[in-house]
Write a structure and sequence with these properties.
6 strands; 68 residues; two-stranded antiparallel ribbon; mainly beta; elongated; four-stranded antiparallel β-sheet
Length: 68
């Protein structure tokens, strides 16, 4: 990846109930990042970090692993 590129992350989950998504950067929730796919455009140095997603449903929640 280079400065100025676009990058996207995605998670996949299934449930008979509605799923809710919240993307995190370094463990902190990103505003308005509530879809299964997170797209970052014009990537700059402050975007560097560990990204994960919390997926919640009626039955509980799960957090994705941080890729290394």
């Amino acid at each position: 990846m280079n400065i100025g590129d676009t990058v996207s992350f995605g998670v996949t989950a299934t449930s008979i109930n509605q799923l809710n998504y919240q993307w995190l950067k370094d463990g902190i929730g990103l505003p308005n990042a509530t879809n299964a796919i997170l797209a970052l455009t014009d990537v700059q140095p402050p975007f560097v970090g560990n990204y994960s997603a919390v997926i919640t449903s009626f039955g509980g929640s799960v957090t994705s692993s941080v890729p290394h």
